[in-house]
Amino acid sequence: MAKTLSGEKLEKELARLEQMREYENTYAACAMICGIDEAGRGPLAGPVAAGAVILPKDCTLLYLNDSKKLSEKRREELFVQIKEQAVAWCVGIVGPERIDEINILQATYEAMRQAVAGLGVKPDLLLNDAVEIPGVDIMQVPIIKGDAKSVSIAAASILAKVTRDHMMVEYDQLFPDYGFAKHKGYGTAAHIQAIQELGPCPIHRRSFIRNIWSEEAESKE
């Protein structure tokens, strides 16, 4: 009975993954299809990261899905598998100072361009999660909620998120009073309280915390 159940689960998972290959199948004439996705547009601190991944045509990564739908353990497992099996992959990183300088959307585009440029193999097609990247001379297909509809974008989302999460854990060692290892820079109540009590640290996005903390307010204390 256990073997039969295992077989049924496997069949169901393979069918789900096949549904997530809709766009890859539609553009199968393209030899090198690259998925693009970002992580970290919303946090108050840390960089924005963008993943770019070209998977082999016959690649089957069980449980591959939108990174937000996966447990941390599953993401970590897939992170290793994706890097091992990908034809090419890269993660672009843009830090908080640059985010403050050019705004988060432009910083996200910059991270995406970095990721594409760092592949080492030029893709024929970019499957992007929701956006069209300016300044890229490759055909692009923006897909709303693409990280749940394309295996390539899902793989990119995992690389971007896990890479950024690892960075935030490292930042937690440098700035232990803010709890970065737990909330990864997002605006939790504990994080906001820490900013209000301690002021920002070097990786905070000043343009994101104007309603929480200001130099003027600090100077009056």
Report on the structure:
A divalent metal cation binds at residues 37-38, 129. It comes from Enterocloster lavalensis. Keywords: Cytoplasm, Endonuclease, Hydrolase, Manganese, Metal-binding, Nuclease. This protein has helices at 2-19, 22-26, 72-85, 96-102, 104-117, 151-174, 180-183, 189-198, 215-220; strands spanning 33-39, 48-54, 88-94, 125-129, 139-143. The protein is α/β, with parallel strands linked by helices and 221 residues long. A five-stranded mixed beta sheet has the order 3-2-1-4-5. Helix content is 46%, strand content 14%. It has a single domain (9-174), classed as Ribonuclease H-like superfamily/Ribonuclease H (Nucleotidyltransferase, domain 5, 2-Layer Sandwich). The protein is globular and about 55 Å long. It has nine helices and five strands; from the N terminus they run H-H-E-E-H-E-H-H-E-E-H-H-H-H.
Keywords:
5-stranded mixed beta sheet, 221 residues, Nucleotidyltransferase, domain 5, 5 strands, disordered N terminus, alpha/beta, 46% helix
Topology record:
Layout: H1 2-19, H2 22-26, E1 33-39, E2 48-54, H3 72-85, E3 88-94, H4 96-102, H5 104-117, E4 125-129, E5 139-143, H6 151-174, H7 180-183, H8 189-198, H9 215-220
Parallel strand pairs: 1-4, 4-5
Antiparallel strand pairs: 1-2, 2-3
Summarize the structure.
This protein is of the alpha/beta class. 46% of the residues lie in helices and 14% in strands. The chain starts with a helix and ends with a helix.
Query: Might you state the CATH topology name?
Result: Nucleotidyltransferase, domain 5
CATH superfamily: Ribonuclease H-like superfamily/Ribonuclease H
Shape category: globular
Query: What is the total tally of β strands?
Result: 5
Rg result: 19 Å
Distance between the termini: 69 Å
The topology string of helices and strands comes to HHEEHEHHEEHHHH
The low-confidence runs, each spanning 5 or more residues with pLDDT under 50, are: 1-5
Q: Return the average pLDDT rounded to an integer.
A: 93
Oligomer: single chain
Q: What is the beta-strand fraction?
A: 5-15%
- Number of helices in the DSSP assignment: 9
CATH class: Alpha Beta
| Helical content (DSSP H or I, runs of 4+) | 40-55%
Largest sheet: 5 strands, mixed
Main structural class? alpha/beta
Arrangement of strands in the largest sheet: 3-2-1-4-5
GO biological process, one term: mismatch repair
EC number: 3.1.26.4
Function: Endonuclease that specifically degrades the RNA of RNA-DNA hybrids.
Protein name: Ribonuclease HII
